[in-house]
Automatic annotation (TrEMBL):
Heme binds at C433. GO terms for molecular function: heme binding; iron ion binding; monooxygenase activity; NADPH dehydrogenase activity; oxidoreductase activity, acting on paired donors, with incorporation or reduction of molecular oxygen. The lineage of its organism: Eukaryota, Fungi, Dikarya, Ascomycota, Saccharomycotina. One of its GO terms (biological process) is ascospore wall assembly. It comes from Naumovozyma castellii. Signal peptide: none annotated. This is Dit2p. Keywords: Heme, Iron, Membrane, Metal-binding, Monooxygenase, Oxidoreductase, Transmembrane, Transmembrane helix. One of its GO terms (cellular component) is endoplasmic reticulum. PROSITE patterns: CYTOCHROME_P450. Its cofactor is heme. The chain crosses the membrane at residues 6-24.
């Protein structure tokens, strides 16, 4: 009996400690910014509520007033920022607010096993090494696969239309962006557009369900426990990484194709052969190229097609503006098209919340927020781009004309918004996303091909809402696809 009482006492103390750590922020966290109640992060698991509703109901007022809040996310309390001045400081003071991705934040988790130590998460000399290897391939690439794949994608849309013309868009858009990133950046054809049951694709779908399970994302420390489903998740992730690198080996290494090509993967292989990076670093960066390179465009394209369907007047304007285009590069010069793209990024930044920086020392953020050492600091992209103090009273409205009326002014406004940290979808400072150019080329070509062939509308039976957590895009997006008379051809 005494032993049992001791065990029960220890359990009570342990449960009390866990509750204390979850319910209240650390005592050394700044007192002059508000605390978002810990239960907010659990609401999408329990109720039918999306993350836009959560922001507007529980976060917006305090975030706009203070520019920063304390929030529980990923098994710890963090400081989440939306004020441009704070963001500019974070991006500038790279060594104080150091990049610290999942491989450091939650190294025991399934998501850390998936992505590893890569160019997005690395810091300091390691990041500079990765950047020097990968920059050229991400800035100079062939556009032809984007064109061919966009035509194939339109063929898939026709094939998958239901009796009423409705199409479930998410799985098809993922197939498009997987083939795009594999062919343009990794140097092999994933094969998802041409194969209905692609083995590698099916494997990816399975592990993404395991990795992004809402409960284990919220409480990643459960990945340390001997839970059979989590052990299976780790095994599946390891197998996927092996198969992916094997595909790169078969297409680039075994036949020495990497020596004659300028894919990002080719440059990584050369760096590995020259002992600049090790095999794990090679694998981690190939995986992150596939992950970020298909997921972010998938989200952005989903948002673009959703808003084209929601605002038919803008769809018609862009369709008319593109009628005389004969060279895909001319899409860069279209004011309506590009202002629409920029407004989509502003209204629905694909990655809503990013928390991957950790303070290396006690520091002051702004004039009066004292941030302790070893604190994770992130930014709420949706909060930044919907802040009325930054974007005015029309911040909640979809208004592409806010960017300007001619392409020169539009591009100046875009760069200014990024430089002033009014828009952080592509991060900022030295760590600005290297894939921005590639992503926009992919968007322009894909959207151009789609609206040349189809008129898009929102089905009445589709419930209009955004994803409940994580990446920000329409939840289970369906579109009604009506063919236009114009035949733009097919890519074989």
């Amino acid at each position: 009996m005494p032993a049992l009482r001791v065990i029960l006492s220890l359990l009570i103390v342990l449960v009390g400690y866990v509750i204390f750590k979850v319910v209240w922020p650390p005592l050394n966290f700044p007192r002059n910014i508000p605390t978002i109640p810990c239960y907010v992060v659990f609401l999408p698991i329990i109720f039918d509520i999306d993350q836009v509703d959560i922001y507007n109901t529980y976060i917006k007022v305090q975030m706009e007033k203070y520019g920063a809040v304390k929030i529980f996310f990923g098994s710890r309390w963090n400081i989440l920022v939306s004020k441009p001045e704070y963001l500019a400081q974070i991006f500038k003071e790279e060594d104080v607010f150091a990049k610290s991705g999942n491989q450091k934040k939650i190294p025991y988790s399934a998501i850390a096993a998936y992505t590893g130590d890569n160019i997005i998460s690395a810091h300091g000399d390691v990041w500079r090494k990765y950047r020097s290897i990968m920059t050229n391939g991400l800035q100079h690439f062939k556009e032809e696969p984007f064109i061919c794949n966009a035509k194939k994608f339109c063929g898939l849309l026709r094939k998958n239309r239901g009796p009423t013309g409705n199409v479930l868009m998410g799985p098809l858009i993922q197939r498009l962006t997987l083939d795009n990133i594999s062919q343009v950046v990794l140097g092999f054809n994933f094969g998802t557009l041409s194969e209905e049951t692609n083995e590698l694709h099916q494997h990816l779908i399975k592990i993404k369900k395991q990795i992004f399970h809402p409960f284990f994302l919220t409480f990643p420390f459960f990945d340390m426990l001997p839970i059979p489903s989590r052990k299976k998740a780790f095994q599946d992730i390891s197998k996927f990484r092996e198969v992916l690198v094997s595909r790169v080996k078969n297409d680039l290494i075994n036949n020495y194709k990497f020596e004659q090509t300028s894919y990002v993967s080719s440059d990584l292989i050369k760096a590995y052969n020259n002992n600049i990076i090790d095999y794990k670093q090679l694998t981690d960066n190939i995986v992150i190229l596939l992950v970020a390179g298909h997921e972010n465009p998938q989200l952005l394209l989903s948002n673009c097609l959703y808003l084209l369907a929601k605002y038919p007047s803008w769809q018609k304007l862009i369709w008319k503006e593109t009628q005389n285009i004969s060279n895909y590069k001319d899409l860069n010069e279209l004011p309506l098209f590009n202002s629409f793209l920029f407004e989509v990024v502003r209204l629905y930044p694909p990655l809503n919340i990013i928390i991957n920086r950790k303070t290396n020392k006690k520091c002051r953020m702004g004039q009066d927020i004292i941030v302790p050492k070893n604190t994770y600091v992130g930014y709420h992209n949706f909060g930044v781009t919907h802040n009325r103090n930054v974007w005015g009273n029309t911040a909640e409205e979809f208004d592409p004309r806010r960017w300007g009326t001619n392409i020169a002014d539009i591009m100046i406004a875009w760069r200014s918004s990024k430089n002033s940290c009014k828009l952080t979808s592509f991060h900022g400072g030295r760590r600005a996303c290297l894939g921005e150019k590639l992503g926009f080329v992919e968007m322009r070509i894909s959207i151009f091909e789609i609206i040349q062939q189809f008129e898009l509308t929102l089905p009445k039976e589709w419930k209009e809402k955004m994803t409940p957590a994580g990446p920000l895009c329409p939840y289970n997006l369906q579109l009604n696809i009506k063919s236009r008379e114009k035949d733009v051809g097919v890519c074989e």
